[in-house]
């Protein structure tokens, strides 16, 4: 069906088989698009928006994972991380913000588990 005869392409206007390097179709005289025909050049015009709040939330959540054990300071960082991540989820890209949110929640669960275990062991030793 599609015989790959070297150096041939089809006119964008009339469909005639013409030379690959032809700039203008000899049949209908229509100017041909640039050499790589058929390939649509995808220009990624998506401006690189960075979700600063989401990233901040992610970083804080990460820091809070390690500092969550520090009373007050760790909790403030964790809380800020959670808030910023939550706000960041409404921005784009939200990947980091979602990660921050998840890490914040994991941190909270870890904290609760550890404190629960501590409380239980303290209660048991009494
Ligand atoms: Zn043509």
Q: What key phrases describe this protein's structure?
A:
single chain; 126 residues; mainly alpha; two-stranded antiparallel ribbon; binds zinc ion
Q: What can you see in these coordinates?
A:
There is one protein chain. The protein is mainly alpha-helical and 126 residues long. The chain has two domains: 1-45, no CATH class; 52-125. The protein is built from three helices and two strands; from the N terminus they run ββααα. It has helices spanning 52-67, 73-88, 95-125, and strands spanning 8-10, 17-19. Strands 1-2 form a two-stranded antiparallel ribbon. A hairpin with a 6-residue loop joins β1 (8-10) and β2. The protein is rod-shaped. The model has no long low-confidence stretch (mean pLDDT 84). The structure holds zinc ion. Zinc ion binds at residues 11, 13-14, 16, 25, 27-28, 30.
The rounded Rg comes to: 30 Å
**Silhouette:** rod-shaped
Uncertain spans, ≥5 residues at pLDDT below 50?
none
**Which molecules other than protein and nucleic acid are bound?**
zinc ion
Write the layout of secondary structure elements.
Elements lengths: L7 E3 L6 E3 L32 H16 L5 H16 L6 H31 L1
Short synopsis of the structure:
By secondary structure, this protein is mainly α.
